[in-house]
Amino acid sequence: MTEWGAVFAVFWILWAVDGARLTPRRIFTAIAGGRRAVRARVAYDRISLPGFGPASVRLVAQDVPLALSPAGVTNRRVGAAGRPAERCDLEWAWRWEEVREVGVARGWIFINGARFCPNTGHVRADELLVLAQLPPAAREARLRLIVQRWFRPGHVRRRLALLRGRTRAVAALNTGLLGALVALTIYVVADVPGRIPDVWGQRVIAVLPGLALALLAGHVAALALAVRALRKLKAVAGENRGSALFSAALLPAQALRLRSLLGEGWFPAQHPAAMLAAVGGKAVREEVYFQVLADLRWPLSAPGQALTRDVAEWFGREIEGQMQRLLRAEGLPAEQLLAPPAPDGRGSCGYCPRCRDQFVRAEGTCPQGVALRPLRRAGER
Ligand SMILES: [Zn+2]
Q: pLDDT tens for residues 262-296?
């Protein structure tokens, strides 16, 4: 039975690493459970892990890697949700008249041959070229539509419900298979045959071939259902579900999260605040709204070129408008989110409005260079 123990160990290792991804930058990963009411588990990391259960769905979101305005485009991040905020090594800004050539290579968008920003799916390279060629008024209208497109929590929720509905049978089969495999593993690893009467052991051995066939049939059926669902679930973002399904067919350990696999590319690129507005719990939502608003009001970037500042300002106003819409839907005023924290000690006199750290002084700046504000104590006005 020890050889079987090794087989199961390899199987479960493959299962554990299946779907784990190392991304070049930190991203938001939200794992939504199988049921409607359950709130997603959220992580912000370079390692994106799938959910444990076959019914879970993974949603990912990245900060918008560029800022756009009717005047031009820059790779400065404005209204970032991630902390620490990702920054670009080299700040670029182009007027639309200067944009001649836009391309995508190795996960990056290049403008005029310069590596501009990560290709996160928020704007396509060909869209940037079209924007460059549009007359200014039409460009402004198009830009507003693009920003609106990143803030559609209702759309994300609808797509999540659709994905769950169309993969119900796949998820149920996967859950059954996972349960059977866990039971088999326990049977082998805990050396159940050595602990039960021989008669029982003989009976188990008699049903093993049937069980193996049932597992195989379950595997094939789940894959067939997944292939059928794949045709109905048209992707809107980059994915390689076809080859992932093929690899899952050969390695059953990778075929136990088929719902999550089918969800790749199914969700449109969103602003993290909108994605978490769709699936995050209250605390997660409030945190991400705060971070975006704080980044809009107290950005860390150096002043930079005049064009960069202009573009960032226009773009910041658009993002702020969308954030206000999210906050109104929650009935949560921005002032409430940005209100000063309660002093955390007798010596606390000032706080940083961006990172919320408290200081024994009320003047000067925090280590990140944000001007401190005085803390009001109870009883003071
Ligand atoms: Zn600070």
A: 999 999 999 999 999 999 999 999 999 999 999 99
Tokens, residue 330: 């929650």
**Each residue's pLDDT tens digit, 3-35:** 888 888 999 999 999 889 999 999 999 999 877
- Ligand 1 midpoint to CA 358 (Å): 9
Asked if 106 contacts 99 with a C-beta cutoff of 8 angstroms, the reply is no
CA of 286 to the centre of ligand 1 (A): 18
Residues 187/195, Cβ–Cβ less than 8 Å: no
Rounded Cα–Cα distance for residues 260 and 14 (Å): 16
Instruction: Give the distance (Å) from ligand 1 centre to CA of residue 370.
Output: 5
Distance CA 309, CA 74 (A): 9
Cα–Cα distance measured from residue 120 to residue 123, given in angstroms and rounded to the nearest whole number: 8
In terms of Cβ atoms closer than 10 Å to its own Cβ (0-12, 13-18, 19+), residue 209 is exposed
Pairing of strands 373-374, 350-351: antiparallel
Q: SS3 of 332, please?
A: coil
CA-closest candidate to residue 15, choices 174, 184, 253? 253
The closest of 234, 227, 217 to 173, measured between CA atoms, is: 217
146 pLDDT above the threshold of 80: yes
The sign of the dihedral angle between the CA atoms of 240, 36, 80, 144 is: positive
Could you give the count of Cα atoms lying within 13 Å of 221 in the half-sphere of its Cβ?
Answer: 14
Cα(120) to centroid(ligand 1), Å: 27
Convert the pLDDT of each residue in 237-270 to its tens digit: 888 899 999 999 998 888 999 999 999 999 999 9
Instruction: Specify the 3-state DSSP secondary structure of 164.
Output: helix
Distance in Å, CA 65 to ligand 1 centroid: 22
Which own/partner pairs from 112-115 qualify as long-range (CB within 8 Å, at least 24 positions apart)? 115/90
Tell me the whole-structure pTM to 2 decimals: 0.91
How far is the C-alpha of 64 from the C-alpha of 150, rounded, in Å? 9
String of b and e for 236-273 (b: at least 16 CB within 10 Å)? eeebebeebbeebbeebbbbbbbbbbbbbbbbbbbbbb
